[in-house]
Amino acid sequence: MNHSQSMYVIENLEELKKFKKNWLSLYSKAHVKNIFNSYEWVSIWAENYKRHIEQLFIITFEIRSELVAIIPLYIRKGDKSKLWYVGSGEPLDAESCSEGHDILCLTDEIRPNISLLRAVFSEYKIKNIMLTNIRQHSLLLKWIELERFKFIKNKIGFRFYSPTLPHDDKLAKKTVRGRRNADKLNLVIRRVETVGDLEKVFPSLVRLNSERWKEKGDKAIFENHTFRHFHYSLTRALLISDKLSMVLIEDKDEIIAVNYSIISGEDLIFYQNGVNIKYKPNISPGLILHHYQYCIAQSMKLDSYDFMTSADPNNYKKNITSHSEIIYELDVFLNINSYALSKAKSLSKHFFKRIISA
User: Fold this and answer.
1) Gene3D superfamilies from the xrefs (predicted)?
2) What is the pTM of this model?
3) If you average pLDDT over each of 110-114, 165-169, 214-218, 293-297, which comes out highest?
4) CATH 3.40.630 fits 5-157+326-357, yes or no
5) Tens digits of residue pLDDT in 119-173
6) Letter string b/e over residues 172-195, b meaning 16 or more CB atoms within 10 A of that residue's CB
């Protein structure tokens, strides 16, 4: 389905803001969508990470003047021949970790006019596209395979999730004792409902998250100004558009745990949390809030509660859900010579690794 199709590339923030109404309209009726191709995520990311952006490269597709699909990409500073998915490719100490890279698309039956798409890439001298987190059944991967683009695919980790139907009771069983103890202690578990409430809770999320990571001897991601300000702005926009699910546990006036999750298409995605590691008794507040969010996902009739990607298949997430899928990194080549060179380098690297380990 690519008849009467046209394409346009949004190149800067000003153009992006003018496109807001059309983008929001498509997202509201799209069958293929997630938070990482929403207007809120893309526009706020582009604003906060602009010093790392050479140029936005957001491809829009129209059929008979109706917007039907968007792929949010960008050109990173110092790397003009490669496209990255928005929310990836940033410096490690500020990376926002967008996941499930995919097309925002009206239906999964739409396909691009490949000659138009190749002409766009040729005009900008683009050689390849880096997708750092993509699912096997994504529409974007389907497009890439159908159009026979050359690519190198590597497994990077596992997405853990708990489906709401059929009911996954593993998390409920793991938190029975903790939830009982929380009731005995008269702890309050609630959801952030207003911007004013968010203003009070967000600093606690930042503080608790940072204390936990520093206790382990690691850098705290929220101490990075760009990352922190991005989420300060994003959480407000998501709350206003009913896509935020931030829940917390309070002991009187003390916040002892916060869970920051996002409604993403048909899933509820866990993004960050903060837990007071010194709170006694240890009721596993982080797990209790995971269970609370799972119940929210059920009540909203969403498909799953998503724990996001982990490189380690045996981490704690495996103990609270029985469901996972492999996540890949994809380097897509638009130039056959670039593909051949990269493939040769990859094989050579693998060969020498085997020699060293032998």
Assistant:
1) 3.40.630.30
2) 0.93
3) 293-297
4) yes
5) 999 999 999 999 999 999 999 999 999 988 999 999 999 999 999 999 999 999 9
6) eebbeebbeebeeeebebeebeee
